[in-house]
């Protein structure tokens, strides 16, 4: 979706100019499950069916795509409603773990009702591909090239799945959590396993991003910015490789470094 282009006054080189600057859209999006609101997020109004499916999967509302029976997106005067209809089994689990979150962009744990929920047990993520340092740089470059809305607005985050020899699947949003949820929904609908590549992010690696990655079985996370200490702890426990500060061909690996090949590994494979 293209950014909106309102007129503005720009001050450059000591002079005032008339300017047009594309801006990212940000609207309230309510996610409802079987008629009950689960979350209201500020989001970019693109790929909202992917957003709804991905949110359900990364937040554990649905354990698989098979538990999502229908997705409906309805625009209203005050915002957009993304309606999910889940199976009876999934609805029962939600009732047992009631969650309501009404929060701004960037707040991934708004509405959690206990500390135990904030640090929920994560599934162990096995397997995953092994990548080279050159692959890390390629993945970041591929995500940058796929961010058409960010190129226009400089105001949105991106999340993508990089796979060797395959086209990058990417989604964008004003919220980093929303971008990852949209990606999760798109991958599930396309039948693409996150373990077949590396999830690439423009944002920092906060603990909630690690939690969402674990819920969809993503063993590799590459990000432009740094992780938090809690994110590293959770990734270590979940078996996820965190690659942070990936810029200009340089990066840091904070957990499970065995998925990133050393020079001796590459030499051995080439022999």
From TrEMBL:
Instruction: Name a biological process GO annotation.
Output: Mo-molybdopterin cofactor biosynthetic process
Write down what this protein is called.
Answer: Sulfur carrier protein FdhD
Cellular component per GO?
Answer: cytoplasm
List, alphabetically, the Gene3D superfamilies matched.
Answer: 3.10.20.10, Cytidine Deaminase, domain 2
InterPro entries, A to Z: Cytidine_deaminase-like, FdhD
Sorted keywords for this record are: Cytoplasm, Molybdenum cofactor biosynthesis
| Localization annotation | Cytoplasm
Known role: Required for formate dehydrogenase (FDH) activity. Acts as a sulfur carrier protein that transfers sulfur from IscS to the molybdenum cofactor prior to its insertion into FDH.
**HAMAP family, per database record:** FdhD
Residues annotated as catalytic: 107
Give the species.
Frigidibacter mobilis
